[in-house]
Amino acid sequence: MSLKLSIITINLNNLDGLKRTVNSVLNQTFKVLEYIVIDGGSTDGSTQYLESIKNKLDFYSSEPDKGVYDAMNKGIKKAKGDYLLFLNSGDHFFNNAVLNKNYHELSGEAIVYFNLNVVEKENSFVKKYPKLLSFNYFLKDTLPHPATFIKKEAFAKTNLYETSFKITADWKFFIDAICKHSLSYKKVDATLSTFYVDGLSALKENAKVIFEEKQSVLNSSYSAYIVGINEATKNSDILISLQKSRIIKMLVKLGFLNKF
Fold first, then answer.
1. Which of 68, 175, 193, 204 is the most exposed place for a label (fewest CB within 10 A)?
2. Do 47 and 23 contact (CB within 8 A), yes or no?
3. 156, β-bridge pairs
4. Protein fold of 5-202
5. Domain locations in the chain?
6. Contact, 110 vs 176, CB < 8 A?
7. Tens digit of pLDDT for each residue in 70-83?
8. pTM of this prediction?
């Protein structure tokens, strides 16, 4: 096993969730990994808990930061693994053998993503992701950071997470990586992690922030894509209208036009 994995956990005042995540990582049967925990200066006992298990961690820190993406960037800078995975406090691996079972899937691509078990209140479902990614896909969705391995060197090509963003910097990373930098990727049809819908992106009041952050990326880096999509949509509407035209149907029937 030549590749080393770095698992990075971000936490702020979520002691119960932190314990759940830490136990999930430490109980993995796969042991060729580095475990990093970045705490934002919690006051709920998280810091004391991390101090009590520091001999089981490769690195941990507890200090104020500028937000979740600043903390994630700190983890990236400390990581020594070939592939990085962000499993933030509260989330956990699908089972204790999932890394051991799927390690061989990390075959050199910059981004390797799996399915995600999503838990929302009393309900749960497995969210699956497409094999082929496109700009149109990222307009409506993103990849799951708790179930996506990213080569550390990929961040040298795309830059680190945008710390001025509150919620969608991971989405920005993925759309830039795939659509701007054409980094290689691979879909694995297996469930890697469990994600609990209780974070910032799940709150209805943050919908406006999400929209504004995404629009800033699209307008600054992908304006030509947006124009192309708008034109294609307009042309599609015209085509549909023509197909319904009685005159066009008659011309096709008489042989003056080919059917389209």
1. 204
2. no
3. none
4. Spore Coat Polysaccharide Biosynthesis Protein SpsA; Chain A (3.90.550)
5. 5-202, 225-254
6. no
7. 999 999 999 999 99
8. 0.85
